[in-house]
Amino acid sequence: MAHKQHTDALAAAMAETARLVEAQLDALLPVPETAEAKLIEAMRYGVLNGGKRLRAFLVMEVASLFAVNKTCAARVAAAVEMLHAYSLVHDDLPAMDDDDLRRGQPSCHKKYDEATAILAGDALQTRAFEVLAEPDTHDDAEARCELVLALAAASGMRGMVGGQMIDMESEGKQLTGAEITRLQALKTGRLIQFAAEAGAILGRASSAQRHFIAAYGRELGGAFQIYDDVLDEIADAATLGKTAGKDLAQGKATMVSILGLERAKAQAELMAEQAAGHLESFGEKADLLKALARFTVSRKS
User: Fold this and answer.
1) Contact of 46 with 185, CB cutoff 8 Å
2) Which of 83, 84, 165, 217 has the lowest CB atom count within 10 Å?
3) Which CATH architecture has domain 3-296?
4) Please, how many CA atoms are within 13 Å of residue 135, restricted to the half-sphere of its CB?
5) Distance between CA atoms of 209 and 197, rounded to whole angstroms?
6) Entry pTM
7) 252: left (phi over 0), alpha (psi -120 to 50) or beta
8) Could you state, in order of their start, the residue ranges of all structural domains in the chain?
């Protein structure tokens, strides 16, 4: 397949994944007639507001390498999107990044209020684990336990939440390249890596296959975050759908501030190339995942 065909096929596959996963999210978050309806509405607002669904696509596409049932994979993809959405809802709060804009729409706390946004994030996080633990997600209880454990590790104190703490602590400080790499690996990379590994856990992949998928996810996560820093520097808010130039304004150290724009971009491209290289043993079946690595460092938002 030519490069253009790969790009077109990837766009179509990502759109189809978004459709499937959003239908699953809709089904997993029904609005009740009872007094807590506002909470579920805010949860839905936080998670059903578009986005690339990159993490969802990773779950679904890796799962397809191992012929996993699509509905099972879509449930796990939905759980990852809920966890990701909770982190964004909380990130935007005045006590954290204080951002009024998310994906071109008012942030959850702007649409509702701060208390509701906090509770919606809390409930999105717990619903994610509930979905992973439900028998409909996989008929093997061991696989479900592995998913819960791996997501908890990726999103907790040694993962995403730990990364957010380091990020807040480092404002106005001069970090080294190694420190920024670790910050980004925890804050963003670990969840992206989990999304890839989740497909392999669902497919009961061999340890060798799991190793390659994890390495792919790790490099992809690194490339994604460095390129995010590049976009923060070069894109405008209308294209990004969120406030542009925020890192610079807040005095946050990024790979762009350390390496400069061109070298940071080259570093992201190298990591994307390495990510694709980890999938060689899967042959043509992994073409879309390789195309995703290229997309990660050529996107506009």
Assistant:
1) no
2) 165
3) Orthogonal Bundle (1.10)
4) 1
5) 10
6) 0.92
7) beta
8) 3-296
